[in-house]
Write a structure and sequence with these properties.
single chain, CBS-domain, Conserved hypothetical protein from pyrococcus furiosus pfu- 392566-001, ParB domain, 7 helices, CBS domain-containing protein, CBS_dom_sf, CBS domain
Length: 264
């Protein structure tokens, strides 16, 4: 599937918190304090038809006894579920909004589509090309046919094939994971072992955040077909049995850099 064909409903967030027009402003304040990821709340009627949006700016210096219907922003910009992600991203860019409600033809709220969702959709679309190149490399090297599936894998079971990661990139991947923007891992299932091929920074970030499972593209190689898998040999020679064996290279703290900085 090309990016032009990826639809909004594949990446929108559903189950969004809402309020009704009769909600008191003081109750909206309480809901916003709990951490609405959109800085506000869609306003819907009893049948979930979108009526407007109430954000922090709308209730600024408004008495708590006021009702939402008197302060909400009406006629918000919306997108349809069948709209392509690319076109929805254009709307976000042109309007300056960070997120848009998604409604059906009857105006019923289905979810929210954010600029983060747009970024995530593009990140995830880059992964299949990586998977294909990894698959072709393994099939060419070992003369076999490899099956690819998508499923969650246990972070604790991953055997790395890379000795070190960089500290600054690890921080970046940690941020992405916290915000739901990290692309899936690429792993090789080899008998009872799961070898990590692509995504070492993401996997270590997940370990840091106590995330137990991650989405992954899984390439299955049978030990009966391949007795000596090159990736397994790399891990063994590097003394890599788990993510705990991977070193974090924080080059910002490198002695040469410290010496250079102190000489200024």
């Amino acid at each position: 599937m090309e990016l032009d064909d990826v639809r909004v409903d594949a990446y929108m967030t559903t189950g969004v918190d809402t309020v009704c027009p009769e909600t008191w402003v003081t109750d909206v304040v309480d809901q916003l304090k709990t951490g609405s990821q959109y800085g506000g709340l869609p306003v819907v009627d009893g049948d979930d038809h979108l009526l407007g949006f109430v954000g922090a700016i709308d209730i600024l210096e408004v008495h708590g006894s006021e009702q939402v219907k008197s302060v909400m922003s009406r006629n918000p910009v919306v997108v349809r579920p069948e709209m392509t992600v690319k076109n929805a991203a254009r709307v976000i860019f042109r309007t300056g909004h960070q997120f848009l409600p998604v409604v059906d033809d009857d105006g019923v709220l289905l979810g929210m589509f954010s600029n983060g969702d747009a970024v995530r959709s593009q990140i995830e679309r880059t992964t299949p090309s990586k998977v294909q190149s990894t698959r072709e490399m393994l099939e060419r090297t070992h003369g076999i046919s490899i099956r690819v599936t998508e499923r969650d894998v246990a972070v604790s079971s991953l055997i790395p094939t890379q000795r070190e990661v960089h500290g600054d990139e690890l921080e970046g991947r940690t941020y992405e994971l916290k915000n739901g923007l990290a692309e899936p891992l690429i792993v090789v299932s080899y008998g009872s072992e799961t070898l990590l091929v692509d995504g070492h920074h993401r996997a270590l970030a997940a370990r840091r955040l106590d995330i137990e499972r991650m989405a992954a593209h899984v390439l299955t190689v049978s030990p009966e077909e391949v007795g000596q898998l090159g990736l397994r040999r790399i891990a063994r020679l590097g003394g890599l049995d788990s993510l705990a064996d991977v070193e974090v290279n924080d080059y910002v703290q490198h002695p040469l850099i410290e010496k250079t900085e102190s000489a200024r």
